[in-house]
Amino acid sequence: MEPSDTKPFDWAVLARLRRIFLEAGAGTPDYWKNESELENYDRTFGQRIGWKWDYVLAELKRRGWRPPGGEVLDWGCGSGMAGRAFLDFFGAGSVSRLRLWDRSKLAMDYARRRALAKYPGLEVLTGMDAGSPPNLLLVSHVVTEMFQEQVEQLVRLAGSVQSVIWVEPGTYEASWTLIGIRERLRGAFNVCAPCTHQGACGLMAKGNERHWCHHFAPSPPEIYMDGDWSRFGREMGVDLRRLPLSFLVLDRRPQPEWPPGTVRVIGLPRIYKPYALLLGCDLEGVRECKLARRTHPEEYKRLKKELPPPLQIWRRHGAEIVEMAEAPAFCAGDDGGGG
Q1: pLDDT given at position 131
Q2: Strand partners, 140
Q3: N or C terminus of the chain with fewer C-beta within 10 Å?
Q4: How is 57-71 classified by DSSP, letter by letter?
C-alpha cells in the first residue's frame, strides 16, 4: 500500500471517472483530462488495483516465483500502479529498466514521474520498443476497453516475452477472456497461477458455464477507520471489504509441481446450515465439493467469517471433503520459478 496523500479527494472528478468505468466498453476513448484526475484516480481506484497486485505478487512469492530480470513493460499503464506495485514488492534491482506504455501520453508522463520519484536510480522509459520485446509483461485492467483486434495484438505481444502477469476485474466477462488467452498460450508457456496444473481449464467442461475464475484480495484494515475511504465506498458504490479479481501468470521457465490433492479454491464458499460448498480446481477439473459442518465444525465456522486459503490440499470421498489443509509454500529457489 502506498502512503496516503493529505490533499482532499476531488469527489466530482471521482464521480465522473466512476461513470466512465461503469459505461466502459470496447473502444472507450482516452478519458484523462489533466494530471489532477490522474492523481485522484491513483489515490483511490488505483490504490484498489494496487491491492489486487499485492495479492497476486504475494501468491507468486509463495509459489517460489521470481522475476526473470531484464526489462519490464507495464502495458496500458494508466497512472502506473501495476509497475510501482511490482517494484515495491520485488525491488528495483529485480529489473534492468521499467518501460511504460499507454494510449494516453498524459498518463505515461504521470506514471513515469511517479516511478522516478520512488525509484530515482531506475531507468524509466515511455513508449513501445519495436525492436525488442521485454522480459516481463505486466497487464492490468484493460480488456473491458478493448476491441477484439486490440486484444489479439496484446496476446501476440504476450506470446513474445518470457513472463506475463495479467490482472483484470473479477467479472464473468474478464475472467472468460483470460481463460481464452490461457488456452491459446499454455502450449508455449508454463501456467504459474492461479492454476495448480498445466492442463486445459476445467471451467471449459460442460456444466461449468455458469462459473468463472475469480478470487478476492483483502483491503488494508486501516481504511475502515478512514472517513474519506468510507465516503468513497458509499459514493462510488464499491465494497471496501473485498476486491474481486481474475488473473493469469505465465512463464517459460519450469515451475514447481504441487503435491497430489492440491486444489485452487475459486470464488466465495456458499454457506448453508448443515454444510458449505467450495468450488475447487485441479488437474481433474472444476467441481463443487461439500464440507460438512458436523464433521468439520472449526473449518465450517472459519468459512463463515473469512475467506479460505486459496491453495489447499483436499482428500475427498466423492464430492465430500474428508480432510482439508492449507497447501505448503514453495521457497524461491525451489525447483522452477527461479532465474
Answers
A1: 81
A2: 167
A3: C
A4: HHHHHHBT-----SE
Cα–Cα distance, 74 to 306 (Å, whole number):
32
Evaluated on CA atoms 57, 58, 60, 65, the torsion sign reads positive
Burial (CB < 10 A; 0-12, 13-18, 19+), residue 99, is: buried
Structure confidence at residue 332 (pLDDT): 44
Half-sphere exposure of 31 (CA within 13 A, CB side): 21
pLDDT digits (tens, 9 = 90+) for 93-106: 999 999 999 999 99
Handedness of CA 303, 271, 172, 208 (dihedral sign): positive
List, in sequence order, the alpha helices (H) in 91-226: 105-118, 148-158, 172-185
- Reduce the secondary structure of 108-137 to three states and give it as a string: HHHHHHHHHHHCCCCCEEECCCCCCCCCEE
Location of C-alpha cell 502450449: 187
Nearest to 66 by CA among 236, 285, 255, 207: 255
Cell readout for 59 is 501468491
Q: How many CB atoms lie within 10 A of CB 156?
A: 9
Angle formed by the axes of helices 105-118 and 81-90, nearest 10°:
20
Give pTM, 2 decimals: 0.94
Across 116-136, average pLDDT: 93
The model's pLDDT over 42-101, given as tens digits with 9 standing for 90+, comes to 999 999 999 999 999 999 999 999 999 999 999 999 999 999 999 999 999 999 999 999
Q: Which CATH class is domain 11-251?
A: alpha beta
Q: What mean pLDDT is predicted for residues 317-322? A: 95
Report the distance separating Cα 162 and Cα 67, nearest Å. 10
DSSP 8-class letter at 33: -
Contacts of 278 (CB under 8 A, 6+ apart): 265, 269, 288, 289, 291, 303, 308, 321
Question: What percent of the chain stands above pLDDT 90?
Answer: 86
Distance, CA of 337 to CA of 334 (rounded, Å) = 7
Cell of 299: 473449518
Identify each DSSP E strand in the chain by its residue range.
71-75, 97-101, 124-126, 136-140, 163-169, 190-193, 215-218, 242-251, 262-271, 275-282, 285-292, 311-317, 320-326
